[in-house]
Amino acid sequence: MMEYSRTAAWIDLDAVYGNVKALKENTRSGTRICAVIKADGYGHGAVPIARKLKGLADYYAVATAEEAFNLRNHQIAEPILVLGYVPEDAYEKAVLEEIRLAVYTYEMAQRLSEAAEKCGKQAFIHIKLETGMNRIGFKPGEEALTQMEAMSRLPGIMLEGIFSHFARADEEDKSYAERQYQIFDGFVSALKKRGVEIPLKHMGNSAAIIDLPQFDVDMVRAGIALYGMYPSNEVDRRRVRLAPALRLTSRVIFTKEIEPGETVGYGGTYTAQNRMKIATIAIGYGDGYLRNLSNRGYVLLNGKKAPITGRVCMDQLMVDVTDIPGVRQGDEAVLVGRDGEQMISVEELAELAGTFNYEFVCDLGKRIPRIYLDGGKIVGKKDYFTDPYEIVL
Question: N6-(pyridoxal phosphate)lysine modification sites (predicted)?
Fold first, then answer.
């Protein structure tokens, strides 16, 4: 596609839809699906994914109020839960837009009650319970039970949900996850004995959906698995078959021969041992391609592996194409995805770089346009440079 002759991320919406169906099939009957599309859908694009999942996902979850409002601005009408911090000056707008907020202090509930009364609407809240992550949330105990009883009586407050988050469900040893669930279940039971019944209880993340369907409760939150990636190498991939949604491509912009003893890139970290042919690819760490892949990663050219030589630069990287016949300027380079019989996965690159798949996809930068495929056809695109900026003088 000549319009994107430099670099592009190709997002297969059918793969996302199929992944959600596969995850749903591994849950208990009646369990609702909350699609986690924070960080712009883990770098894939929150709005197109939300639209594709209409009728399949019951809820959406994001990390910030701004992300939630952006979905509403794009006519995403389903319930949206903000999992993290929301400043008080956004409470009224959140109430008016029927955005669900995670509440983890009694004072937050009080402020939301005031905002709801002022707006003349209910504030839908999901209580965050701390069970072993030690991030945000009420610590289970008598004080928390008393506070939640009081919250249930606050004017304008609708206790729609209560949730927690597994810290280690992606490990082969599930004992910590089991203890977390027992704490959560015990606290919910104690609340019920006090007459506080909350409709939506949710704890399962991608790892738990795959390995611990017995802990589904009323709703599960699927994040990384939506996009066809597994949360770790320790989950049982046989339970749920996922298809990667991302294909990342760039272009060969230059080729040259170098002689033995010549070095490649900043710092001269790669030295040619023989006469070599080097190709320069139009992507770098300024696009979110990991610099730690210097002298470690590879790309696919003409269906063959081309190792990265030297350091990944901000805007370009160099690869060894000595053993790949016919490489020339303009050829497509595949950085993630399939080319012929060869395949590069996000997980493979992340492992080579000493990180994990979540970080790789979330780091993909705004210089990379997202191109959306549905039924094998291009149905949309997101070019971040076409967004209008507020003019500041």
Answer: 38
